[in-house]
Amino acid sequence: MSTVLQKIEAAVSYIKNLYKATPIVGIVLGSGLGSFTSEINIEQEIPYSEIPNFPVSTVEGHSGKLILGELGGKKVVAMAGRFHYYEGYSVEEVVFPIRVMKYLGIQTLLISNAAGGMQKGFKVGDLMIITDHISQLTINPLIGKNEAAFGARFPDMSEPYKKYLIAKVKNIAVEAAFELKQGVYIGVTGPTFETRAEYKMLATLGGDAVGMSTVQEVIAAVHMGLPVFAMSVITDLGIRDEENTITHEEVLQAAKDAEPKLTHIFKELVAQL
């Protein structure tokens, strides 16, 4: 057994000793979206620091614990706080929790993030369904020896975000009278927010939103055959006329303001899975 599999099995064994049910949905919560966990009927909370081989979140807005319980009538496991390459973690560490959730038994992965908007007409607080991504500006988590237990050497990425899940979310939004955007997410390393020239370049490349997470997690999930749905909260505007700056505090506030809509969408989606 490879070292990475041994690390995953140690983490999974520890979690299963504390929580006997099998979660069928995994949820990753982005910056400023930790309050979502209040909607979960929490049956077990485990600080990351107590789970063998788990990284520990270092970013404000990420509380750093694994939440297990029930949401929308389904057993779920939620990450209240994720890991980023810019924190100094290896790519393997960034995607480690995704692999652990897969080995816990999840069948679907839901991801949220805070992102900078680049599509014309976007405004702060918009929710954007991620329909595709551009990954070349960050480090691919599958570089290195392929772990056959996870998946094929060259996984197909033609539909990283499942269309049937996107269709469900669009119907949920219509019923709730929510306006949703959709577009392509570009993943970058961070931790700096982009320059104005970089924002223009990323938009020219075909990006509608840009952020410092998600892409590596999705690649690891697709590698393991996990269906993914992901949504960005547009917390700042990269393509803008004003001579203003962007602060992390403003990003967290914008995410908090948009959280009720995202919470409703995720809760209803879980109920339909």
CATH class: Alpha Beta
Shape: globular
What is the strand tally? 9
Strand ordering within the main sheet: 5-8-7-6-9
What is the CATH homology-level superfamily? Answer: Nucleoside phosphorylase domain
The arrangement of helices and strands along the chain is: HEEEEHEEHEHEHEH
Strand content: 15-25%
**Main beta-sheet strand count, sense and barrel state:** 5 strands, mixed, barrel
What does the oligomeric state look like here?
single chain
Q: Considering DSSP H and I runs of 4 or more, what fraction of the residues is helical? A: 25-40%
The CA-CA distance between the termini, in Å, is: 33 Å
User: Could you report the average pLDDT, rounded to the nearest whole number?
Assistant: 91
List low-confidence stretches: none
CA radius of gyration is 18 Å
Number of domains: 1
In CATH, the topology is named Rossmann fold
What is the correct CATH architecture? Answer: 3-Layer(aba) Sandwich
**Please, how many helices?**
6
Structural class: alpha/beta
Brief write-up:
By secondary structure, this protein is an alpha/beta fold. The chain has six helices and nine strands, in the order αββββαββαβαβαβα. The chain is globular and about 55 Å long.
Tags for this model:
Rossmann fold; five-stranded mixed β-barrel; 6 helices
Description:
It is built from six helices and nine strands. The chain is an alpha/beta fold and 273 residues long. It has one domain: Rossmann fold, CATH 3.40.50. It has a five-stranded mixed beta barrel with strand order 5-8-7-6-9, surrounded by four helices. Helix 1 packs across helix 2 and helix 2 packs across helix 5. The chain is globular, with a radius of gyration of 18 Å. The model has no long low-confidence stretch (mean pLDDT 91).
